[in-house]
Amino acid sequence: MYRIAPSILSADFARLGEEITRVVASGADWIHFDVMDNHYVPNLTIGPLVCEAIRPVTQAPIDVHLMVKPVDRIIPDFARAGADVITFHPEASEHIDRSLGLIRDSGCRAGLVFNPATPLHYMDHVMDKLDVVLLMSVNPGFGGQKFIPETLSKLRAARDRIDAYAAKSGRRILLEIDGGVKVDNIAEIARAGADTFVAGSAVFGAGRDGDPNRYDSVIGALRAELARVGA
Ligand SMILES: O=C(CO)[C@@H](O)[C@H](O)COP(=O)(O)O
Ligand SMILES: [Fe+2]
């Protein structure tokens, strides 16, 4: 089963609640929530107050992608604000195992995010605490960037590790991809092993002209491409 997670980074922030209602009604599975601190990444976005504000608007899982350093202090705030999934970058945590434990102890699903040049071995000794592995297919900090093609071989390598772990443990870790996902490349990305797809500009960019049917058509087109790949 595939999940589509529109990133609200590209939504109209003046009408955020409506935007979320519309993408979920159009078939979005998760809401991807990008948190940037102007320190770990050169951009500044939204925090727990906004997460709390959108929580009553939707039942869809809120997928919080932390691009902040340090990470531990902010984790309980997001859990209280209603996050369902919290992911962070290993470079931003002094103690990766402890940060993953903090997320899970607060009742959320936990994940590690790999920048394009971050090696996959960071996951090796924490598989039992991972619910999600997120591969960045752009450098973090901005929406609307171009998919880095090298990510496809990295996805295959991550898929192999996740499948080997599942065969041993019976636990299925999700493999999420973030950055430059569009209708014309989502099938190739799925074939490389991703099962959860963040799409910001591809989804919200399509609705910018105010036509409410545009989210339906772009999410429908992403799903049609995934259907060509199969389960
Ligand atoms: O985490 C990030 C960027 O750092 C992403 O979640 C972007 O928001 C994805 O946007 P598109 O590449 O799909 O426009
Ligand atoms: Fe993200």
From TrEMBL:
It is an enzyme of class 5 (isomerase). It catalyses: D-ribulose 5-phosphate = D-xylulose 5-phosphate. A divalent metal cation binds at H32, D34, H65, D178. Its cofactor is a divalent metal cation; Zn(2+); Co(2+); Fe(2+). Its EC number is 5.1.3.1. Binds 1 divalent metal cation per subunit. The keyword Transmembrane does not apply. The gene is rpe. PANTHER family: RIBULOSE-5-PHOSPHATE-3-EPIMERASE. Keywords: Carbohydrate metabolism, Isomerase, Metal-binding. SUPFAM superfamilies: Ribulose-phoshate binding barrel (SSF51366). GO terms for molecular function: D-ribulose-phosphate 3-epimerase activity. It comes from the Bacteria. The active site is at D34, D178. Catalyzes the reversible epimerization of D-ribulose 5-phosphate to D-xylulose 5-phosphate. This is Ribulose-phosphate 3-epimerase. Pfam families: Ribul_P_3_epim (PF00834). Substrate binds at S7, H65, G141, F142, G143, G144, D178, G179, G180, G200, S201. It comes from Thauera sinica. InterPro entries: Aldolase_TIM, Ribul_P_3_epim, Ribul_P_3_epim-like, RibuloseP-bd_barrel. Pathway: Carbohydrate degradation. Belongs to the ribulose-phosphate 3-epimerase family.
